[in-house]
Amino acid sequence: MIVKERVDRILSCLESGKGTMEGQSAEQLLICDPYAIFYLTGKLITPGERFLGLLLQKGRTPILYVNELFRFDKDLGVVKKYYSDTDDVTKLVSPDLDPALPLAVDKTMAARFLLPLMEAGAASFFLNGSLAVDLTRSVKDEQEKAALRKASLVNDAAMDEFKKLIREGVTELEVADQMLAIYKKLGASGYSFDPIVAFGDNAADPHHSPDNTVLKEGDAVLFDVGCVVDNYCSDMTRTFYYKKYPSKEVERVYDLVRRANEEAEAMIKPGVPICSVDRKARDIISEGGYGPDFTHRLGHFIGLQDHEFGDVSTTNFRLEEEGIAHSVEPGIYHPGIAGVRIEDLIIVTKDGCEVLNHYPKDIEVIG
Amino acid sequence: MIVKERVDRILSCLESGKGTMEGQSAEQLLICDPYAIFYLTGKLITPGERFLGLLLQKGRTPILYVNELFRFDKDLGVVKKYYSDTDDVTKLVSPDLDPALPLAVDKTMAARFLLPLMEAGAASFFLNGSLAVDLTRSVKDEQEKAALRKASLVNDAAMDEFKKLIREGVTELEVADQMLAIYKKLGASGYSFDPIVAFGDNAADPHHSPDNTVLKEGDAVLFDVGCVVDNYCSDMTRTFYYKKYPSKEVERVYDLVRRANEEAEAMIKPGVPICSVDRKARDIISEGGYGPDFTHRLGHFIGLQDHEFGDVSTTNFRLEEEGIAHSVEPGIYHPGIAGVRIEDLIIVTKDGCEVLNHYPKDIEVIG
Hints:
Number of helices of chain A: 10
Number of strands of chain A: 20
Shape of chain A: elongated
Oligomer: homodimer
Number of domains of chain A: 2
């Protein structure tokens, strides 16, 4: 069912000019992204290469354009307009647009639909209006916060189970292959992203994919994992050690990453520039001598999708705001020495932030 | 390494005017689709939401625009231009374009990249030029044919293994969950699409996803399955019967589908309108009284992706051409009576077609 409050937030953001890349105001917005449409209607339609659109206009009932292959009965509080594979999308949409006004379109709208609409003069000009949706989606309402909390609780419980898969001679892939079933048993509907399982030096590659590497004594064991519960995502990383407490140097790396994670989380509250949160973590790691080995942004926004619009990086000058949800995931990657990442999700509260993950961050020897 | 012969075919198709949706000629084409770029360079880069582009221009070396996150050493015979997340894509690409000429763009090019390029006046006007790529990709060269054959041979062998998973009390999901390992053992790199396993009345739903349905005596067992070998896809459907030979009516349905499949295949040769192949299969099923129960097109083109541009339907007036590869997959779906689909892949030859699947099509009772 259409969430009127979300539609209103988007339209007012659009009207203010903050909602378009061009900084210009608009009163009509054509959304194509299936997750954005799900966010507004509660209905997920994944049309592949076919056109899907939700037209929002000030003071009018939203119109949903759907290929008849995805016909459904449920009343969503929108006008449904079906079309077939032989229909012309331009002729379908144009009559609903005011050609004297600009049209804001989705940043993902494909050229094959956008070019003919321009050719037909369906609007006075065209803008990229995705910011209105992205900024609105980035501030979670109570229902969304509850789902995010639930997904992270399941993730905390899953981490405990994943540890038990670790035994002599096991490979990363053998461990990864068992994770989905564990998530499902705990109530998740699936992964929020393909799990990262990294042993030993593989932990020093932040984008490692599980392979046939065999676990050996003294290895780091890094899990970067997440699941979907009630349509919302979790995402957490912990780094363990197999059978042997790490060396002094690795311990120092671990403590740097942990401090970066915890001090970044401690400073988050409304009004703090997001870039300064990244800066805080980066400074701690740099002062410890590992600056060049923290090779990625501190975090990303999260919600219905694991990576949503908005990053926690040195170039994001937006201020933290109550309801924003993002990851805090510093790491140090130095092949031959250590690979450590520690990641939690947080939601910004009225005067601080709520850390959604409760799994401990002490150095833990397993197996 | 850039395949010059494929680039030349695309540019000449573009110049002829056949390669744009607008029917207009162009000399510069900006390709964004990762698989189209793989087809031309042998390098698969999946940039997610980031910009990826391959610029083809008459008489010039192709230029590949890649985010530095996907930096690679290999020489592909193209000019590589890296950009970072803080760079402006419009400023990156514009200097390479001739602003006095039209620019053909990929049908999938996202509005967030296309709109600023238009705003900057980077070309005289913009066209949808994907047809040039799609038409070229639809006619396979010898290397592609060899890979398609190999993928279908693996699929034939896999079908034999899948049958052995069928036993009393097994569920569709339990069977489907074991398929990937079998494909990998046979040399495939993965699925070409999620397998369909349908028992009993579920076979009468052409888009059924494997669920917890338990197999029982007398059930139809439909497998619609495919894998990827050497980057090319296979896709085959067979319908079996568990423990009991089907009733007279089901046997009649099966024979209609089989005849539709075999007679359609028998008529394929260069010069035959693709729509008439669909028509042949549809007529056979209609004359048998099941016309309304054949609810989809007869087939789809296939290659690097399971579904490529081009369908075998009543509205495709293109002629069959040597090197085209597509599926032939008639079906009858009548809940309560029967669900049967029989699918092969074919490649059009000089004077007929080569059927890539060799798995028998006789009614087979298993278990």
